[in-house]
Amino acid sequence: MKEWVNNEIDPLNKIKAFGLAILILLMLFSATPAACSTDIQYELVANTTSDAEGYYVFSGIPDGNYTLVALYNEDKWRRADEQVRVLGADLSVNLDTSSMDIDANGSQALLDLEGSGGDLTGSAVISGLTRQKQMNADPVPLGFTDVLLLREVVKEAKDTLVASGSGQHLDIAVVTGYRSHELPLKNLMEEINNNSSLNLTFSYFMADYVTGNDVDLSGMDVIYINMLSASTALKLTPMVDSAITNGCVVIDDDTLLNESIPLPEDQIESFREKLNNYWLNGAYDQSNLKNLVFCIASDCCGRTDLPYEDPHTLPERAIYHTDMTGYFTDSLDDYLAWYSNRSDGGHVYDPAKPTVAITMYQSYFPFQIEPIDALISELEARDYNVIATYGADSLPSGDFFKQGDEVLVDAIISFTYFGNKFDAEELDVPVINGIVNNYMNRTEYEASSRPLPADKMMKIDLQELWGAIDPVIMAATEVDPETETEISVSIDYQVDWLIDRVESWVELGEIPESEKKVAIIYYNHGGGKDNIGASYLDVVPSLSGLLDAMASEGYALNESQAPNETELLNLMLTQGINIGTWAPGELEKMVDTGKVVLLPESTYEEWFSELPEERKQEVIDQWGPAPGEIMVWENESGKYLVIPRIEVGENVLLAPQPSRGWLDDNEALYHDSELPPHHQYIAFYLWLQHSEEEGGFGSDALVHFGRHGTQEWLPGKEFGLTRYDWPSLMLGDLPVIYPYVMDGLGEGNEAKRRGGAVIVDHLVPPIVSAGSYGDYANLSEAILNYEQAEADATLKAAHRSEVLNLTLSLSLDDEFNMTEAENNETYFENVFLEGLKELLDEYKSQSMPYGLHILGTSPKGEQLTGMVNSMLGTDFADSVNEFNETEGAQLYLLDLVLNRGANSSEAQIEVLGTENETVGTFLSSAEEYAANLALGEEEIQQVLYALDGRFIPGNQGGDPVRNPEALPSGRNFYAFDQRIVPTAAAWTLGQEMADQVLEAYVAEHGTYPKKVAYILWAGETTRHEGVMEAEILYLLGVKPVWKSGRVVDVEEIPMETLGRPRIDVVIQISGLYRDMYPGKVLLLDKAVKLAYAQEDSPNYVRENAEALKASLMSEGSLNETEALGLALLRIFGAADGDYGTGLPNAIAASDTWESNDALAELYLSKMCNAYGEDVWGENLRELFENNLEGVEATVHSRSTNLYGTLDNDDFFQYLGGLNLAISSVSGGKYPDSFITNMLTGGDEKVETLEEFLTRETYSRYFNPKWIEGMQRNGYAGAGEMADFIENLWGWEATNPDLISDDMWNQVYRTYMADPELSEWIKQNNPYAYQSMTARMLETARKGNWEASDEVLASLAADYAGSVVEDGVTCCHHTCGNSLLNRYVSGLVSVPGFTEAIEEATQESLEQEEPEKHSSKGHQTSVAEKLNQTAKSSPEESASNQTVQNSDSGYGVDSPEPAPEVQMADNPDYVEGYEMQKEAVENEDGGGMSFSGADIFGTLFVVAAAGGIYLGMRKKKM
Predict the structure, then answer these.
(1) Which of 250, 346, 371, 782 is buried deepest, with most CB atoms within 10 A?
(2) From start to end residue, where is composition biased (Acidic residues) (predicted)?
(3) How far is the C-alpha of 715 from the C-alpha of 1077, rounded, in Å?
(4) What sign for the dihedral angle of Cα 1414, 1420, 1421, 1425?
């Protein structure tokens, strides 16, 4: 990086040049003297009466502050008040009286005042006219009017009346966070303290000094406070309160401190406003700060011997330019006149050229103005016009950005995070977030991973509320060597990058659609043909819809090249996927299509050489020299990096985002720190950036399509990136548009802050009730039959047996005392049946996503009513059921209103038989929700707006079921102010949830847990606003302290109030939580220390910390203070700048480990980095293990109706990984594991992980309704089914006892043994089916599922047959898993299978004789011989994918006829490929039964029965 050098701008020289400007400004903008804001008590100085013409005069007036009052009373009172200041010169003051709002008694009291009797010894004359105001006309003279000259007498804080001119000594202090005021305050301190005649002592303190030092101001007479953070204010609170007790005047400008202002209540705000006017102009003119001090001394302490002037102010809003005389003007016309005709050789305004606006604060001038000057200079050097402004709430700067209806600006760089002072939506141009780092110098910024303090995140958070994008820190804070004060100085390369990005956004709005080059990037994480997709978005039809819309808008899409959905999917599968190093044959096939980009090694090396040296070395250290091994193809002319793509027009292409490379290299897979991108990843993004002439694509914009990609998660700063961080290097200056699911707010924020993206959020799929099916429906019917069989005892007994048997077969018996239910009829009817009905109702009402969303669509018909019903909640159904108890009555009511055109009244009469106000209110909300959902049809249009460089307005993100205000979609979603976490509501709920955790644990174990581990995610906290944080605090016996709605501190809960032990905690945070909620990390760290400090008992925090401290000290290298500091660390996560646990890819690569001890080791090595006030991201592995040892319970949360525990890998990698790690350090003992279930507002509860996961499998993956919804999405829907099985394997790998054999059997029965569903999957996504069967087989191979030989043979035949018929999927766990493929070869013999695998991998499957399958499903001997584990060296573990071209050819272009299948080494085999697979019924409550008599069915049921008998017993890995 370049060293900081800036010799062109000397801020001090610029300050010295302000003199002339200030004089001009004083003449232009000085305000009329304002009236004194106090009216405590008056002394009459002189009085007179105006003559017949209204003329009055006072002579001999001394210097000082006075109030002139004109009083006239004939038919009614008229009055005028004017404040004046005499400074040796004569004054002319006209007094214009009015009859409005006159206090007659107060006016008469003024007339009754008596003078002091002293002679007037001054030299000034005050004269003027008394006049009467006229409506719509000039005032007219009002003769014979009484005129009073008054002087105030002010009451001191100690209730003593002090006459004007008292010379009491005052100690006055100013405390502030305004860096711009430091030098003026320093100068003022020298001026006042060197002038003994003032009888004042003045001091000032900057916020960071107060934070780091003990400052005692309790003896001050006056303390003025302006702009402090909540934490600094909190530190000052005791001292300020003590000062107030001592009689100090304390004036606090909205920093949450207590005040003491000796003025009437109704005058305090106007007084504060006057002081603020001085303050805001204090950096501009130092005399304002002097007058502020004198004003407080005079008006609050009676020091009227200190006359003060009115503020010397800049305009309330103005345009600034560094080269304009006087720097500021409040007239757009004047500015453009100067700018268009300037003659100093600078840039001349040209309306035909693009214009960039800059918004800043008035206080930037003069000490923070250099970054603005740097921007102006560089923008003008690039031939851009600039309008730099500041404004106010009452006078917005946005008025300068328009002339009439014409918008003058093409983009805005905004530095104003506390309100942007312009209407961005009206201007409809991109708003870029420029940031001045007031807290670090350049060197510190460059070295820091989190370049803003935790309590200063509003510079990012609040800007996002206004829709600002692309946060770029472009200036830091340096110490001026001459003045030793801090000034803002731009960072040259950041200024260039910021302007580069602004320029790209502006150009995006100027380039015609027909010439605009757009790269649309979709996801194929890990490679393979089975998993093209995005989170709850059907990618192929969504892409097709976007392409159609782009064609309509004039983008260069050739009809011959624009494919339909089927063609598009086929193209993506043949030339648009990533191929792992394990499948060089597949890479050869892709190259043979002639449709991919072959980037020459020499071109890439040239581009690579331009990267910063440090970044290049990171890549070489991890991936070797360019071009590496991933996606590299070679022929006689050299090596080429392969870039898959689909051209859909001259300027538009589709391409998969490159894989991250974890699965391509075992060293990368088990890497315990951040992983740089590999060569092909870098080549892809550099190819997009470079022009066609340079060998690239020359993209004007990128569209990252759906949640979520990997570019925003590359190593680098947590936020406030430099242009040399990896995410920035991959983008350069390219604008990014990012369609993103609206309930992905946490991770979506990372795309905004680290991925340079403008979000266009899209709807979730319809969230509907799961309903009832199968034996659950049969059980509900059996209960109903029992209740209706009152007259027939025999029939009733039969139904009772049916209910009991179905309860047992569905494994619902754990909820009840089955012995009592069988033998006690009263218990059966009053307890058992009622509880069972509640449980079944809960299952039925469980929410589930119905299919996937397609971009630019909205739910219709039944899906619309189901979604709106979910949004209305259970209260709506309860309201309807009061009038109509028919199941689904509320859905019919909604259908009438939303789909059939009935009005609310008509629908209610039809369904309820009457009208009801409550139901009517619900129906009004339903219509509003439906209208907002319908706006989902504008999502594609919003993407096109973003591609035109237009403004995308912000909106709340989140789950629209829990928060309907998240609608409509198509917006640039934002989170909320992190300072409010936990909210008061979250604290209340969190206490309740923590109590439920403890109650559940005590019920099971009889004692309180001593240590509980929590997982905190940013996305969850954003939804529930701090319920989990509240749980943690309450377990510790600590509570939040709020001020003005913000959490500013924590305080202990007394033991007598708590009523139980203080529970110790361990907190596992995600990398995203660390980035988004650093303030909460510090707050929780403080809470742990506070809990430890309580000497009450039992205090498990203190007990555990003391034990850990003793252990650390026993090692001999630490003293007690150091050991205690470490012993109190409780918050751990990934390394600073890194994300995730590393488990998902390692678990997927199940051939690389034999025991899940390797997974525990990986988790411990990745997540052992400590966070807190004194440490941030330090690797403390041993301390982490010590903390985890003895954890008795773990808690995670779910507050989204979209995401569950089995539809993504996040839940098992965090909670599953944590449980596994605890087991690993605790002798194999797993903790109890709980979920704080917040899916339904008002029905929050704590459940065991097993309960939550079981209910999710009921509502979704085994539910015909869920399957039906996914079938509507074809290829993508089948992919969701495959994802479920893959994530189930993730839980199996981390928490083996959680997933029973019966669960795997149910998976087999649902997806493979059902001929209709299995055939549907094969037809719509054969590669997903191949992946599903492979994972099932791998689960058995590793000994985690004891499947029968027949089931395994059937799975193996399906898998091998699919490989031959459909081609290899070639994800890592299929053709990349040689152990699995040898295992399959040992189960069945399918002609062509071995050849297909060997062709793809270019490796032989016959290297060793495969071991025959055992019915126990465990095959360790072969694995022990062949497995490559995480401990192998890079040379041993890294695959080499470089493919050399030859003439031998690879593969078959079209599928062969279905081959015959032979069972290997089994004389009694059944031809698996032709085998008719039947679904086998589960064991029911009446004993064993079979669905058929064939031998396969019989054996399968026997195996299933054995699994049920064994219950939850599992083989540990």
Answers:
(1) 371
(2) 1400-1409
(3) 19
(4) positive
Where in the chain are the domains?
A: 42-152, 165-301, 314-495, 511-734, 772-845, 849-974, 978-1257, 1300-1517
Angle between helices 874-881 and 861-872 (to 10 degrees): 100
Measured over the CA atoms of residue 1027, residue 1032, residue 1034 and residue 1035, the dihedral's sign is: positive
* SS3 at position 1008: coil
Structure tokens at 581: 């190093």
CA 1252 distance to own-chain centroid: 25
Sign of CA dihedral 898, 901, 904, 910: negative
Under 8 Å between Cβ of 1218 and 1296: no
What is the C-alpha to C-alpha distance for residues 738 and 520, in angstroms, rounded to an integer? Answer: 10
Helix, strand, coil proportions of the chain in percent (round to 5)? 45, 15, 40
Query: Distance from CA of residue 1155 to its chain's centroid?
Result: 36
Q: Phi and psi for 858 in degrees, rounded to 5?
A: -140, 155
- Tell me the two tokens of residue 271: 């007084």
Domains 165-301 and 314-495 agree in fold? yes
pLDDT at residue number 76 = 82
* Other residues' Cβ atoms within 10 Å of the Cβ of residue 695: 18
Are the CB atoms for 579 and 585 separated by under 8 Å? no
pLDDT in tens, 1099-1156: 999 999 999 999 999 988 899 999 999 999 999 999 998 899 999 999 999 999 999 9
Distance CA 594, CA 597 (A): 8
Helix extents (H) in 199-286? 207-212, 230-245, 265-280
Under a CB-based contact definition with an 8 Å cutoff, are residues 524 and 540 in contact? no
Structure tokens, 683: 């080549």
1195 strand-pairing partners:
1014, 1234
| Sign of the alpha-carbon dihedral angle for 1146, 1150, 1153, 1156 | positive
Strand, helix or coil at 1484? strand
Residue with tokens 């870098």: 682
DSSP-based three-state secondary structure for 473? strand
Under CATH, to which class is 165-301 assigned?
A: alpha beta
Q: ∠ CA 360-365-370 to the nearest 5 degrees?
A: 80
Residues 728/756, Cβ–Cβ less than 8 Å: yes
What is the DSSP secondary structure assignment for residue 1240, as one 8-state letter? S
Q: Do residues 1419 and 1410 touch, judged by C-beta distance below 8 A?
A: no
Contact (Cβ atoms closer than 8 angstroms) between residue 498 and residue 430: no
**Which amino acid does the sequence have at 1427?**
N
DSSP code for 2: P
**Using one digit for the tens of pLDDT, what is the confidence trace for 870-915?**
999 989 999 999 999 888 899 999 999 999 999 999 999 999 999 9
Q: What is the largest CA-CA distance in the chain?
A: 132
- Whether 1023 and 958 have beta carbons less than 8 Å apart is answered as yes
Q: CA 312 to CA 310: how far, in whole Å?
A: 6
* pLDDT, tens digit (0-9, with 9 covering 90-100), for 44-101: 889 999 998 999 999 988 877 788 999 998 878 889 988 887 777 888 999 998 887 7
Bridging pattern class, strands 95-97 and 124-134? parallel
Query: Hey, which bits of 795-895 come out as E strands?
Result: 847-849
Give me 658's structure tokens. Answer: 């490159």
Spatial separation of the C-alpha atoms in residues 1329 and 1355, rounded to whole Å: 10
Residues pairing with 69 in the sheet:
81, 148
* Omega of the bond leading into 627 within 30 degrees of 0 (cis): yes
Tell me if the domain spanning 314-495 has CATH number 3.40.50.
yes
Q: Which of 292, 258, 287, 478 is nearest to 368 (CA)?
A: 478
Q: How many CB atoms lie within 10 A of CB 106?
A: 11
Structure tokens, 20: 């002339």
User: How many CB atoms sit inside 10 A of residue 407's CB?
Assistant: 16
Is the model's pTM score more than 0.85?
no
